[in-house]
């Protein structure tokens, strides 16, 4: 079953064409990558799926339902969670509260309950806290739950952002450069973590990533774009040997390194 289906997606910013006739689909449980040079239009595609940018043309369906024209919070409520290329955590809030905030749509109490601080409110708030702590423990952040998010190293802020996206209970998780700012060891650990998250939470994952060893190590299929258009798609072995991809993005040296890895 297709979780996300995109047809002829196009985006213009004034006279600048950022994405043109982008077709894509991802089935339930898949882990698929989107790669390409800087400025190729990758994050613009993510922003259109999450309805931060309205598409100029094209269709976007999630679980068989058109989501074009919805608000970003409506898209999130349907089951699309995401992270951002430039980290968007609440730096002045604690690590725990960053994740608790994302889980609040599932709180299960009314405004009246919150005002009265009644038994239902107390029970559900305790459950929210425990659930948020479970997410943090997955990322090894339980000992940092009371620290301000802005005081954490960049890599840990990325982990908080992914934990927060998981707290929205998504069916589709979109990760925009999840290893940005991480050292090589942390990046390899993230590969294992992404696979673990997919299996544990039965997620479908759509991934943008510049580190080719991460992409090749975690993705089952890869789509490559350049200047907003698809130039190749296939399994990792096909992509790293594709002449168009080597010329536009990988380069001969990286292609050889990936082939030898």
**Which of globular, elongated, flat, extended, rod-shaped describes the shape?**
globular
CATH superfamily (homologous) name of the largest domain? P-loop containing nucleotide triphosphate hydrolases
**How many strand segments?**
10
Number of helices in the DSSP assignment: 10
- Name given to the CATH architecture of the largest domain: 3-Layer(aba) Sandwich
Rg over alpha carbons: 19 Å
Question: What's the pLDDT, averaged over the residues?
Answer: 88
Oligomer: single chain
Question: So what's the CATH class of the largest domain?
Answer: Alpha Beta
Structural class: alpha/beta
Q: Please list the strands of the largest sheet in the order they lie side by side.
A: 6-7-8-3-9-10
**Which stretches are low in confidence, meaning pLDDT under 50 for 5 or more residues running?**
none
Q: Major β-sheet, in short? A: 6 strands, mixed
Order of H and E elements: EEEHEEHEHHHHEHEHEEHH
For the record, the count of structural domains works out to 2
Q: Which percent range fits the helix content?
A: 40-55%
Into which percentage range does the β-strand content fall? Answer: 15-25%
How far the N terminus sits from the C terminus, by CA atoms, comes to 33 Å
